[in-house]
Amino acid sequence: MIAALFHNHLSKLVLSTILLILAPAEAQGNVTVGRSLYADDRNLTWRSRNHEFGFGFHPIPGKKDKFLLAIGYAQIPERTIVWYANRDNPETDRGSTVEFIESGYLVLRDPKGRELWRSRSVTDGSNVSHAAMLDTGNFVIVSRNSTNIWESFKDPTDTILPNQELDVGGSLSSLSAETNYSKGKYQLRFDGGSLVLNQIDMFTGKPYEGYSNLGTGSHLVFNESGSIHIGNSNGSLVALAQTQRPELNYYRATLDFYGVFTLYSYPKTPGGGESWSVFKAWPTDLCSTFLDLANQRGNRFGIGPCGYNSICEPNEWRPNCTCPAGFSFLDEKNKYGGCKQDYPNNPEDCSPDGSTIGEDRFEFKSISFTNFPFSDYGIFVPATELECKQSCLRDCSCAVAIFPTSRKDGNATCFKKQLPLFNGVRNRGTVDSTVLVKVLKPDASRKKPETPNQSNDNRDRLVLILGVLLGTSAVFNFFSLAAIALIFFCLFRKRLQDLHGLPSRRDLETNLQFFTYKDLEHATNGFNEEIGRGAFGTVYKGESPSSYGDLVAVKKLDKFAQDGEREFKTEVKVIGQTHHKNLVRLIGYCDEAEHRLLVYEFMENGSLSSFLFGVLRPSWQQRLQIASGIAKGLTYLHEECSKQIIHCDIKPQNILLDESFTAKISDFGLAKLLMNNKTQTQTGIRGTKGYVAPEWFRNTPVSVKVDVYSFGVMLLEIICCRRCVEVEMEEAAILTEWAFQCYSEGMIRKLVENDEEAINDVGKVEMLLKVAIWCVQEEPMLRPSMRIVTMMLEGAVQVPSPPCPFLLSSMSMLVSKTMI
Description:
Layout (H helix, E strand, L loop, with lengths): L1 H21 L7 E2 L4 E3 L6 E3 L5 E7 L6 E8 L7 E4 L7 E2 L3 E4 L5 E4 L5 E4 L9 E6 L5 E5 L4 E4 L7 E2 L3 E3 L4 E7 L2 E12 L2 E7 L6 E10 L2 E4 L5 E4 L5 E5 L7 E7 L5 E7 L9 E6 L3 H12 L13 E5 L2 E5 L4 E5 L2 E8 L20 E6 L2 E2 L4 E8 L1 H10 L5 E4 L8 E6 L6 E3 L7 E7 L11 H19 L3 H25 L6 E3 L4 E3 L2 H7 L6 E4 L3 E7 L7 E7 L7 H12 L9 E7 L2 E7 L6 H5 L7 H21 L14 E3 L5 E3 L39 H16 L4 E5 L2 E3 H10 L11 H4 L2 H14 L10 H9 L13 H12 L1
Parallel strand pairs: 26-35, 38-42
Antiparallel strand pairs: 1-11, 2-8, 3-4, 4-5, 5-6, 5-7, 8-9, 9-10, 11-12, 12-13, 14-23, 15-20, 16-17, 17-18, 18-19, 20-21, 21-22, 23-24, 24-25, 26-27, 28-29, 30-36, 31-35, 32-34, 33-34, 33-36, 37-38, 39-40, 40-41, 41-43, 42-43, 44-45, 46-47
Helix pairs in contact: 9-10, 9-14, 10-13, 11-13
């Protein structure tokens, strides 16, 4: 029997030895200087002595040839990462390496040998001894006097483990999404003596107010038994969670990507099919937490766990995010990233007075026990549900209406909301309201319909006329028709004389008027009166058919693409399909032999440049209205028209003003008509000095963000009524630099000296200045979209404090030039 037991024990020992030899890990124990690991399919790691943790390259699920340099559990089938390197750009390619170098650093390099990240030493690394993956999950670099030069526990990511502490200066940051390891929008940190959870502003990294307070103290202690406490400076501990049987379970505490701080457990001796289970979570209902805080103190805590235009519903400890009817997720792989409207508001849906055109094309979808606590712009009481629907239906700006679920007596309050919607919550136990979402009917057209009354009136009138004609004698009909024909002939002839022979031929393909060169030459009196000149050609004043007004602006293009008529007609068709109140309308064109001309509506008040930099300063309110109008026009070009258009030359000379000083963007869509420039995303430099985005000079593709940059420069000009270059003021030569200097030094009033209206509205001045600085960031990714810019200008989105817009390299070049 003893022999049998010995044989059995020996067999297990041999088997264990074989498994250790075959396991995808390097020898356990200390890691000596010069050792390295490679990102490949072998998945070699430096293991802890108890084999529970491994340091090395971990493949990212769903992303071929992408790896993380990370620490993870080595004995758990469910892949679990507890720390990873290079938080700003954590994904590395196959063939990347990490090396423990002689100076005491871990250095991560890409396959070409370029350094991506290195560990930060807390002490001098000249006397380095070794590195080690400890049994606690802490990877350490140790000096010869046995002190830790660096340790992963002091540089946490989203997770802490037993035996780890979080001090006042430390913090946890969530992932961006479940499989996206870049830094997300949630933090766990100490703030003013309290351990809080908060969102951060993704533009600046600055925190919002905490949405959950876990307790007061100075450090978080996760002891070896798996219990979590908050420690005070006097040495006392307050328990947050008391675990049981640590010898039987693994424990970890993670700030999840959706904003919940969760203590998880996993059995050390699994029977199969286990997964991490929740032991405790903070907060337990994140959706209601944001709703309650919003109702009490306003929107100081971020946009909620589900993003814009979405609904958050509690599902145990984890929020469940859905989109309302008529909306879908911005990213189907990330349900927490917000929703977009499936059929964005079309200008053709709205009449000039703001009412909805074709109300019968829309219907309402109801979502009970739901509320969006913000975005109110219209509130009326008393109201019935029918009145609430009718008001929202007829109001073009209304996206949803909120009506109390339990009030049926007609004395309820109706809340009308516009986009974007945020902090949406659905909870049967706490929310007593119904969301009425206005959506386009499945079979409805977005085109402006003929109203039923108008159609019936026309039909009745036609029947009446036919009856009269059939009921009279043939002689009377003959003379009547002859008289009518004579009158119309005389009127038509007179109109033709007034138009100097300008015909009204319509191109069915482009839905625009087609003119011959002779027509336009006659209409402009031989191109006699020049009213503008730019990169695309010269503009002349002319006369037009009465359906478009008395005057037109005729642009004679100097350069155009060499692909002939097809290229020209294609681009003209795109321009002709753009309709927005903040865009100059294209009426017609000429495409005859070598002649290419465009006919636009005439703008009575000329360009913004003349208006802004003239003798008299425009009023502050006019400038605000103009800035908002330009932003809306660019938003339409970038996101809402049938084909995205990048303008490439936004400047005051290309902003025109109509008779009511409404700003309208001109020359949009013309970039592709320039000779030798067949795409708007190539790097041949377009634009005007002072307004050109830096990426034009970097030999990199450009995007709509070049227009955002130009808008930011022009917004500064609108604020200050000063030109962006050659500004005669103190030591400043470039307006963007001077404006940021005034902002950073708290001298905002200096930007609007002698402008009493602006000085009396200095809060608005500061808001516009921050928007402009965001727009002129040298890094395109930091610039907001024009839709966000529009929302900022309207006050729908809070404007965070912007960073310095100039990259270090640019500033160095500037300093060098100054010194030279």
